[in-house]
Every structure is written in structure tokens, then in C-alpha cells.
Specification:
The protein has five helices and no strands. With about 160 residues, it is mainly α. It has one domain. Helix 3 runs antiparallel to helix 4, helix 3 runs parallel beside helix 5 and helix 4 packs antiparallel against helix 5.
Length: about 160
């Protein structure tokens, strides 16, 4: 195998037609896409997915008609543990719950991006913690719904 010498390396790095690379930012749609790319996309995908799942499960738990055994069951099967979210749900119902949750998601993502531009490790850690914290109510809701289904099929005598 023949190794290139330093002249060949310089010529290859000079680019097409022997034009030396510039320090100016690239132009065009690909460069624009790179400029607007988020710093922690994998964490954000999980964060948004879990936030949406939290909304759906909260809706299923708080609306008794969906799992009612008969028409007389009108009380909710649970309450919102977060006081502020509970107030929003009480006042604006499902549209308010969705707007509140995704406003919080937007704030967290923006904070991660701003902090991550100055301290990458800290921004990444905040994004990862956001995912970890968001998974807790999802797991609690899944356990609660699993227990509901168990007692639905195997009622106590």
C-alpha cells in the first residue's frame, strides 16, 4: 500500500479545482438544516413521546366513562398528583392539559438548547433527566391501569 505524501494530502484537502477551504460558513439548504439542528435529538424524541403518553394515560385515568362497568360509575378513578396540572385540568380540561404539558416540554427543550450551547455536558444531563423524570408518571399510570384491568377481570368477592 502506497502512503500519500504531504503534498498529496494538501492537494486533497484544498478541495475541488485546487481552491483552498474557506472559514466562511457553508451556504444552502443542507447548511441551513445543520444550523437549526437540535443538540440532543434522541433525548428530545423520548421526552416528547413520554410527555404525549403521559397526557393519554392521564386522560384515560381521569375520565371514568372509558373504563366504566356500568352507566352508574361516574367518579374518576384517580386524581392528578401535580397540583398545578390538576388546577389546569380542572379549569380547561383536556385542551388545557395538552397545552400545559407541551408548553412545559418546549420550555425544557429550549433550556437544554441554551444551556447546551455553553456547557454541552450540562445540557445533555438536563435532557436525560427530563426523560427520566417524565417516565415516572407514565410508569405509575401503567401500573394503576394494570391494577384496574386485573380487578376488572378478577373482581373481589
Amino acid at each position: 500500500m502506497v502512503r500519500p505524501d504531504s503534498e498529496q494530502i494538501e492537494a486533497a484537502s484544498a478541495g475541488a479545482a485546487g481552491v483552498p477551504p474557506t472559514s466562511e460558513p457553508a451556504q444552502g439548504p443542507i447548511a441551513a438544516r445543520r444550523r437549526w439542528a437540535v443538540r440532543y435529538p434522541n433525548a428530545y424524541v423520548w421526552f416528547v413521546f413520554l410527555a404525549a403518553l403521559d397526557i393519554m394515560l392521564t386522560y384515560l385515568i381521569l375520565h371514568p366513562v372509558l373504563f366504566a362497568r356500568d352507566a352508574t360509575m361516574t367518579e374518576s378513578r384517580g386524581t392528578e398528583a401535580n397540583v398545578v396540572a390538576g388546577w389546569v385540568i380542572e379549569r380547561w380540561d383536556v385542551p388545557g392539559m395538552v397545552a400545559f404539558k407541551f408548553a412545559l416540554v418546549a420550555v425544557v427543550v429550549i433550556l437544554c438548547e441554551v444551556i447546551g450551547r455553553h456547557r454541552d455536558a450540562t445540557g445533555r444531563r438536563i435532557a436525560e433527566w427530563a426523560v427520566a423524570v417524565t417516565v415516572i408518571p407514565v410508569l405509575v399510570a401503567l401500573v394503576q391501569m394494570g391494577m384496574d384491568l386485573y380487578f376488572w377481570f378478577y373482581p373481589a368477592h
